[in-house]
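thread from #wetlab-drylab

HS: before we spend reagent money on co-crystallization trials with adenosine-5'-monophosphate-propyl ester, can we at least see a predicted complex? here's what I'd submit
DV: go for it
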Amino acid sequence: MSNRIDNLLHEARRFPPTEQFAADAIAGADLYEAAENDRLQFWADRARELLHWHTPFTRTLDWSNPPFAKWFDDGALNVAYNCLDRHVLAGNGDRIALHWEGEPGDSRSYTYSELTSEVKRAANLLTSLGIRQGDRVAIYLPMIPEAVISMLAVARIGAVHSVVFGGFSAESLRSRIDDASAKLVITADGGYRKGSVFPLKQAVDAALAADGESTVSHVLVVKRGGNEVEWTEGRDLWWHDEMVAVDDEHVAKAFPAENPLFILYTSGTTGKPKGILHTSGGYLTQTAFTHRSVFDLHAESDVYWCTADVGWITGHSYVVYGPLANGATQVLYEGTPDSPHPGRWWDIIQKYGVSIFYTAPTAIRSFMKAGRQIPQQFDLSSLRLLGSVGEPINPEAWIWYRDVIGGGETPIVDTWWQTETGAIMVSALPGVTTLKPGSAQVAIPGIQIEVLDDEGHDVGLDSGGLLVVSEPWPSMLRGIWGDPERYKETYWDKFGDKYFAGDGARRDRDGDLWLLGRVDDVMNVSGHRLSTAEIESALVSHPMVAEAAVVGAEDEATGQAVVAFVIVRASQADVATADEASALLRAHVAEQIGAIAKPRTVFLVAELPKTRSGKIMRRLLRDVAEGREVGDTTTLADTQVMQIITDRLK
Ligand code: PRX
């Protein structure tokens, strides 16, 4: 890590905005000034400017009971009305909201009027199924328009969605359904991925058949994959049958600004994912503001595409809520970047004339590896702004992205934020900031970031520390579902009433921020957050495993990769060869959590390195996994153990 940062800090390339870009940009330097003068007034102005309030608010922030914040709390709004109806009423009903592209090549476009009608129908359908304000609805869908329609329909009636990424297993789905006591699941028969259909309904059936009564009374099934599904009469309903039976008129009622909007589960340092809770008014204010100013959205002319799945926070904030609140035209794509050919993404950019493109460094690195000749076969000249999210982008990838995808001209905004922050917190503003490849740069206007040492002192310029948000912000998480204590402990205990993000960071001499990765036991694999503890508990749930330790090892393609060290039970030791055991355990993790959590490597070992108090020393295992000389072992209970491990792996 220290080598990497030394290299980064020697990165001297600078890219100021062109005069033309700066002149046409939505966001100017005056925003920083306004926010500095009066931060709360700044956010109140944004909330009024960007959203429609059925009942205007008079209070901006209530921070009388930290860390439980309330924003705009005497105001009332309807999130879906803000994303749909008001654009139609403003005369933009014929503007395309979604250009949807299915993986097999089928496509469908929805204008704002059409999307509004669909969401109204779906809202009536949910109401007819007994869903009321505050009820939880689990959504387990591929990237099809119905995913967006479902989320907005839930929001429209004041209920709470919990979207579960379609790549998660039945087990993961069930634990999320149970934790939130979801009443309804919206799923599909299957979706397309890498040229074939992956089943989803089957996983829902398995999830609901697991031990113990489930809270789910209905399962709504969208027909997408055309694959065979089993049917539970009385519980399961086809989306297309039900949607035609309901009215497409629905009046959006206003809900309080702090009405819960969604729960989204994310990995923490324990085995149990945390249900991050977001509410309505503050969340929509900051997602709309950042989407407009960071991506310089000119809604009448831009075509925007964010490649994230709606199962992640990026999909919530920058596929659904931010863009639709701003009346953007966007692309939604179902499949993988390389199906059916390695240039599929670039093909889509060419087809729809995408002008703003937002993706993750891991994707960029994999395209770099495949070579520039692939994107060069397509006309990418419509692009005028590129974005990056999910993990640090190394300067080489940054330059390649700008040169090959952006024609050597487009600004790149590297955006730092988290599931918990709800919206972008650190990023350049493309018409204002001189860009530095590899740095996420500066807090957006209205956000206060500090870099502190363990004792809470500012580390100053040119040194590393912990990234902290020192003032509450509108789209901040409001808690962990059902666990206020864990919310306080995880984020607020360390620095009093400042939010501890779990990331290391450094400010360079100009004050620009460089993100250094997680400082806790959370891994970042292809921009997805995974917990070491969660994968360890999946591994030890297999009868073959006595003990397991998981680390995130540096990986050129995926940023980090999951590497597991496993002690096999003596009674099982002869059951399989090391290769077979490793394959079996990788498959077991995929089944327990989902394919994204599958270890890259499983090492079978005789011992694990532990301190005298029994804590596994992951630092040493990371040395082994990354092929380095093993570091200081003096605090180990048994100093021989690393020798035993490395001998065995030779
Ligand atoms: O470590 C940071 C990394 O991703 C974590 C948040 O993950 P998640 O909640 O899944 O949200 C990802 C998409 C917003 C952070 O704690 N991270 C995210 N963006 C960046 C980043 N690291 C460096 N640079 C970024 N731009």
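DV: Residues 526-649 form a domain with the GMP Synthetase; Chain A, domain 3 fold (CATH 3.30.300.30).
HS: ok that's useful, forwarding to the group
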